[in-house]
Amino acid sequence: MSDQVALLTVVLLFILLIILTVMQKKSPYVLRELPAFQRLRRAIGLAVEDGKRIHIALGRSSILSETFASGLIGLGVLKRLSRIALISDHPPLATSGEGSLMILGQDGIKAAYRRLGLPPEELSQKAPLVGATPLSYGVGSQMAIRDERVAVDLIVCHVGSEAALICDASHQQGNLSIAGSDDLTAQAIAVATATYPLLGEEVFGAVAYMDGEPIHQASLQTQDIARWVIILIILIASAAKLIGL
Questions:
Q1: To the nearest 10°, the Cα dihedral for 92, 95, 96, 101?
Q2: How many structural domains compose the chain?
């Protein structure tokens, strides 16, 4: 019975997502303002003008792990930043701590090159595997930030305590750092060390805030509706229990 309820819920949410995506063209969903992404738009332009690079930390989640959802968010951010930053002399830098993320990151940058009609360059330098363990990934990202003329650091991925090393290197270089993760330890570190921390679901809304495509805005609207429905069900169930039903 529980499996049937779960399947029905998924189907209903999928139908709602399709309906809201179509409705976005007539009545766009207004997202609440997040200072991090307002500042990011300006920082990207300044980095391009100054000939500096944007660093995206892709994290170290395996493609087969349950944490790969946050890895997909990092890849989505990389894809959208590549469209803008490739017009400069220093394209984005994507550091990863897992082999599949490295390959997907390189493929994303290659696709951006093709879309702009530019000849592909050495992708191993644009999306390197800087470390295969948490500590080595943190240290490798530190070295990349210090050596590659980075101006903006985006840490929107699955990381743990190594986020402290990345944010510390960003701070020492005077960079703008926007950090968020699905890991509670990394979230706490981001609050203490990042210029703009992303908390909770703000991490998974990053792509929607960056490109404004209907499907991504509709996904956030679907989540909001589902959240209110769950709250309403909890309140009704609590009231029913209080009155003895």
A1: 10
A2: 1
